[in-house]
Amino acid sequence: MLAEAIERKLVDCDELILYDADTAKAEHLKSALKFPATVVNSLDEMLHRKPKVIVEAASQQAAKDYIGRIVAKKIELIVLSSGALLDSDVDLSRVHVPSGAIGGLDALSSAALAGIDEVMLTSRKNPRAFDMNNKEPKVMYEGSAEEAARLFPREMNVAATLALTVKPAKVRVQVISDPAVQRNTHEVQVKWRFGEMLLRFANEPHPENPRTSALAAWSTIRLLQELLEE
Ligand SMILES: NC(=O)c1ccc[n+]([C@@H]2O[C@H](COP(=O)([O-])OP(=O)(O)OC[C@H]3O[C@@H](n4cnc5c(N)ncnc54)[C@H](O)[C@@H]3O)[C@@H](O)[C@H]2O)c1
After folding, report:
1. pLDDT on residue 128
2. Ligand 1, atom 24, residue with closest C-alpha
């Protein structure tokens, strides 16, 4: 979706550099594009080409392994595997996290400055998303955002992104496998010093990747647009 948005000139970009540990995947994407794209075989090769922005969409481990080397080169980095940042001691001033499958993070980070008493995230997905077949709602997880992001590294970036936004407040998380929902729904309830918030998102899955929401891809496109226009 990101490459397609670049091809459609939604973002101001003149060349795409693709790196995937599985080179065949990067080659496959390149061959599907009419836009100028180069496949590289390592992160070093990518850094050598001095891109303005790098988008990590690999895994929490890849993000942890690469962040330090990317920010040391003063390259802006968009991290999708936001769980990787929860225990990071790297300077995050050039690291950007898209709002992903939720939004309203501006309000949450504003409230965090004043003081947040309570943040509760309730995520409901169809049992399909968990390879389950339960006929009644089933709580899959209840606990902290940090642990949710660790246990569901591909499905619960929302929890990690929220935790990073409301720091030092803690986020309580409930993940429910619910046959009544077709869309991925995320509800964020906040009690803070000067009020309350209730944010609710009911997201269609990404057309090519049912584990994630289309909104997550579009939020990355929007962030990339912003960084490339600077
Ligand atoms: N923040 C969000 O809203 C959001 C949304 C979607 C996905 N994600 C996260 O983004 C990441 C990618 O998700 P996906 O569904 O596209 O995964 P995917 O498994 O479909 O694709 C990941 C690709 O990265 C490659 N890769 C893995 N490790 C690598 C490494 N060390 N170096 C280079 N390439 C490597 C793999 O070969 C694979 O092609 C996951 O961590 C996922 O949780 C975050």
Report:
1. 87
2. 58
Domain interval for residue 125 = 105-209
CATH number of the domain that 140 lies in? 3.30.360.10
User: pTM score, two decimals?
Assistant: 0.94
Phi, psi of 102 (to 5 degrees): -130, -170
Here the CATH number for the domain that contains residue 6 is: 3.40.50.720
- Number of compact structural domains in the chain: 2
Query: Distance (Å, rounded) from C-alpha 83 to C-alpha 157?
Result: 6
Return the residue matching tokens 């309830």: 189
| Per-residue model confidence (pLDDT) at position 212 | 82
For ligand 1, what atom is nearest to the CA of residue 219? 3
Residue with CA closest to ligand 1 atom 31: 62
Whether residues 126 and 174 share a domain: the answer is: yes
Place of tokens 């940090």: 146
Which residues are registered as beta bridge partners of 55? 78
With a cut of 70, which residues of the chain have pLDDT below it? 210
